[in-house]
Amino acid sequence: MKTLSIIVPFSNGLFYLDDCFESILAQNLIPEEYEVICLGDAPGEGIVAKIEKYEQQGLPVRYIQWFDKKGTGYARNRGLGVAEGRYVYFLDCDDYLLDGTIPRLLECANDNDADIVCGDIFPTYFKRESFDTKGYDSNKIIRSDKRVANVELSNIFSGEVTVLNMLIKHDMIKDNDILFNDEVLYYTDIPFVMKLFLSVKSCYLAKGAGLAKRLRNDPVHYPSVNQTALKNVERMINDLLVVHNETMQYVNNHPKRRNLVNIMLCDVIYEQCVKGWHISHGTSAKCQKVLKTASDSVFKKYALPKRMIIKFIASGHYHFANMLGTLLRIRKKKSGMFGNKIQWYRLIDKLIFRHLPRKKNWIVFESFFGRGYSDSPKYLYEYMLKKFGNKYKYIWVINKPKDSIKGKPVVIAYQGLRHVYYSTRAKYHIYNVRQPGWFKKEDDMVFLETWHGTPLKKLVFDMEDVHVVTQAYKEVFYKDSRLWDYVISANSFSTEVFQRAFDIDGDKIIECGYPRNDLLYSEDKDVLAGRIKKKLDIHEGKKVILYAPTWRDNAFYGPGKYKFNLAVDLKRLYTELSDEYVLLLRTHYQISDKLDLSEYDGFVYNVSDYEDVSELYLISDICVTDYSSVFFDYANLRRPILFYVYDYDLYKDELRGMYLDMETEIPGPLLKSEQELIDAIKNIDDISEEYTEIYNEFYDRFCSVDDGNASERMVKALFG
Ligand code: C2G
Predict the structure, then answer these.
(1) Are 530 and 607 in contact (CB under 8 A)?
(2) What is the Å distance from ligand 1's center to 76 Cα?
């Protein structure tokens, strides 16, 4: 007889299985003593080949498949039907075991002849390679002792009811005929565990036995069961009611367990109400019936607004529950008793602006969230102004307008009432980043996304792990990008990447080159450079180094507010380079740290607030960057580029992943220390020569569409 059967239901997301299976192999169990039973309803995904691969690596795995969607409960029951182990362990296909988990669970079970042994659960968005329990927020751990509050069994369950990371004696399941409810898609664990615990005589907790519960960061293509539930709230609540009904049979004599199930129901109802789900009469009536049986101690657990919503439903006043849910939602969105301004602007929009006719000749331009007059929208605008004059009404979203702006556009603030107004009335919208979440596009509007760089760092759906602030990034991006009619690409490489990474059709992509790079090909660029140098008060005789690094996904204060680590010793650079050079320091637009560089006046120029980085390219003799897309644009000038990548190993593999091999495909050296950087600057002519061939290849691959006429091509495509 085998010691253990690991039952792994598989539904979608084949690549998750690698972490799952590899983590089982890493337990170093004796293959003859355990089995892995993988079961599922997704035969088309290449699962059979994957199973074979792991069989060859020594995993005692077999696969049972069927062809219609059945759900997790069904899969686990089928697994139980064939499992041969003395113990069973349910593992989801997207989760993975931490090292040593199974041996620890087994050891504890053997030593104590335990019916059940539980371990901790670590919810995480990260794959196995990036995950580390060191530094993990301990509040997020689903502790085994929190799930099963008291191992002496007087007080079982205080929190999450889940079968995960639980080693269970198989005989106990068989003897008591315990199965999962296979009619529900969601919450199938609850009655199973509750019934199980009617028979449990000894339950233990194993120290250091952890399971990483992977939260899926791409609910668009690979939703987890819980994520599909959030899109199907009626089904979710109905399943919960079915499960509730069934569970009550097992918990009738256990007031604490009964309360726990009622609290779960109340929590779900409340959360969904506040999220905007409108409870229907039918569902409300079902909830009402169930909630009637709940004891007062359940309701008392909740503070006032929450309690009111639940009480409204319990008493059949579901309209009031919906109304209160809406009010709480508005309030929750942002600070202040009256919610945030944008909520009210949206209301005004709905009541008034949406009823006004669309203006066919109005165009809204926006660059980097209203941070300035710059990037491709600026160059498209200037081209249109020259070509069409007043035929169109131009509206610019700029928070702090300067007098650099040409013509006389209407200037409005980002997210102000006028932004909402013009967004509703204008036919054309030209943005270089994503539009705000409240933007509502009508069928007769045209949205041009210029985007803001040829990608080196992996984008959206090409990113495996998402380290940025909002873990819902992929889903939100997907929603936003559905509204784009056209996307600009600067080269065939970007065209290919954008299609895949943004998940958009190829015919939406206009490969016209970057309008922002037209400047780099203009005939009077030297005259212009002279003027810019003068404006910045840079001495004619000094050469210019532009240092323009990007942001770090994992170093932030909050959304759009990233930290800056000045990874150079300015004093040293001053000593070594100031005779010949000045240094322009340009932080990324997402960086919120303000730097005081007054100590280095005359050598370091803080150009972080300078509106248009393209103008800075014009005056620079050398560009130093790290992983920013600035070098793709700068290469149009064919001037030297250095890559100062002090955190290369971390950035390359963990934070993002790259599209290019930086060791071989980029037009300059990778410099990992400050000394290397200084040496490279001092020997810049040798470096230029050394990189001539790679630079030329790079130019042909990424810059050959740009020729100074990108704006013209794009405007033609958009306006004919
Ligand atoms: N930028 C800048 N100054 C910097 C860094 C960037 O002005 N120090 C501007 C450049 O126009 C650059 C753009 O912001 O092309 C995008 O910056 P990246 O550093 O490449 O980073 P990100 O905003 O993440 O965009 O496909 C491109 C990617 O989306 C990268």
Answers:
(1) no
(2) 47
Helix (H), strand (E) at residue 196:
helix 189-199
Report yes or no: 213 and 164 within 8 Å, Cβ to Cβ.
yes
Beta bridge partners of 185: none
Residue whose structure tokens are 């941070």: 371
Q: Which residues pair with 543 in a beta bridge?
A: 581
Q: How far is the CA of 522 from the centre of ligand 1 (A)?
A: 22
CA of 694 to the centre of ligand 1 (A): 23
* Amino acid at position 154, single letter: S
Question: Candidates 432, 450, 468, 588: which one to mutate for ligand 1, based on the most atoms within 8 Å of Cβ?
Answer: 588
Q: Tokens representing 619?
A: 């005056």
- Candidates 484, 473, 397; CA nearest to 449 is 484
Mean pLDDT (whole number) for 463-490: 89
Tokens encoding 263: 């609290």
Distance CA 329, CA 318 (A): 16
Ligand 1 atom nearest the C-alpha of 368 is: 14
Contact 263, 298 (CB under 8 A): yes
Inter-residue long-range contacts of 344-349, CB under 8 Å, 24+ positions, other chains counted: 345/416, 345/417, 345/420, 345/438, 346/420, 346/438, 348/417, 348/420, 349/420, 349/421, 349/424, 349/440
- 178-205 pLDDT, tens per residue? 999 999 988 999 999 989 988 888 899 9
Q: How far is the CA of 629 from the centre of ligand 1 (A)?
A: 5
| Å from CA of 698 to ligand 1 middle | 19
What atom of ligand 1 comes closest to residue 516's alpha carbon? 11
HEC profile of 540-579: CCCEEEEECCCCCCCCEEECCEECCCCCCCHHHHHHHHCC
Q: Concatenated DSSP letters for 249-307?
A: HHHTT-HHHHHHHHHHHHHHHHHHHHHT----HHHHHHHHHHHHTS-HHHHHTS-HHHH
Best residue among 630, 632, 662, 703 to mutate for probing ligand 1's pocket (most ligand atoms within 8 Å of CB) is 630
User: What are residue 350's phi and psi, to 5 degrees?
Assistant: -65, -40
Ligand 1 mean position, distance from CA 613 (Å): 10
Atom of ligand 1 nearest to the CA of 630: 15
Q: How far apart are CA 298 and CA 441, in angstroms?
A: 44
Ligand 1, atom 2: closest residue by C-alpha: 588
Task: HSE, CB side, 13 Å, CA atoms: give it for residue 648.
Answer: 13
Region of poorest pLDDT, from 270-284, 299-313, 339-353, 465-479: 270-284
**What tens digit of pLDDT does each residue of 478-517 get?**
999 999 999 999 999 999 999 999 999 999 999 999 999 9
Atom of ligand 1 nearest to the CA of 549: 8
Identify whether the C-beta of residue 264 lies closer than 8 Å to the C-beta of residue 161. Answer: yes
* Cα-to-centroid distance, 517 and ligand 1 (Å): 14
Q: What are phi and psi of 287, to 5 degrees?
A: -60, -40
> What does the alpha-carbon distance between residue 94 and residue 125 come to, in Å, rounded to a whole number?
11
